[in-house]
Structure prediction request, 355 residues.
Amino acid sequence: MPRPIHARIHPGAVQHNLEVVRQRAPDSRVWAVVKANAYGHGIEHIYPALQAADGIALLDLDEAVRVRQLGWKKPVLLLEGIFNHADAKTADEFGLTVAVHCDEQLQLIEAARPGRPIDIYLKMNSGMNRLGFLPDAYRQAWERASASAGVGTVSLMSHFANADEGALDWQLNRFDEATRGIPGQRSLSNSAAVLWHKRAHRDWVRPGVVLYGASPSGRATDIADVPLRASMSLTSAIIGTQTLQAGETVGYARSYKAERKMRIGVVACGYADGYPRHAPGGTPISVDGILTRTVGRVSMDMITVDLTPCSEARIGSQVELWGNQVKIDDVAYASSTIGYELMCGLARRVPVTVA
Ligand SMILES: *Cc1c(COP(=O)(O)O)cnc(C)c1O
Prediction:
């Protein structure tokens, strides 16, 4: 028998969350961001939920091709653009829209002599200091791109560094100044800007993590007023129980010590399944629908939970690691990370079902 752990993907939740994005940004078109295999969900699994999106944005060329092979006719955007000549050829063949963040990428497009001009998203480095043309160099880059025979429409794009923390005007103002008078569609907003910065919505928004029901800030409380639904649940079962006497310890490094006699449960889920090893004792988890906490270290294949509030729990009891009841953001926060990382880190060995 396989281990009882498995992940459920809920395309209905993604579809619902996409509607929430639409309500938040009613005047913008929506790039549904599905990079990293749809934030660990599996592009194929959530693809049916994306039909109302205006475009699909991702990073890997093979994912872009998969999306086309699934039948997607609307735009597909490569968020980091192309890396070599073969990529440019593939972008041409599959009608992909590509980000262009440097002159080298523009040259790759020109050298490919595409059959149809390739639509591009010309990226500005407005302060993130990862990819893009600096504001001072942007207008010239736009002129070169617009004059290029291989290039179709040129859209204007940038990415925010701290849209989840408050002010983004420092970047937005740079972008607006440097692009004043330049024609073309604008795209700036990630999930955080979709939720919290209407001024930045512009022509196309690019939500990722909110489509999967998690918080762009990493804090569940920040999205308490947004009716998002979790699109991934990770569940397993109790496979053993122990009764500890006061003073006994649990697991590696004996990091948890029972203060009194108590019952604990052993859950078939560990860091090799994608559960964060850094989750400290006290991380929320539910057993048979009752909220409780982990105790002791996360090991490769198992974690241990306090069964004090769950007196009926026994071998076979259902456990939710994250999902509808236990928020992925809360597990992530306890573990000093963000929901994004937990979704993307779901391990291959975990069986996935679509529900
Ligand atoms: C990942 C990504 C997004 C989506 O970010 P979220 O925070 O998940 O909404 C948007 N734009 C770019 C360029 C990205 O790389």
About this structure: The chain has two domains: 11-220, 232-354.
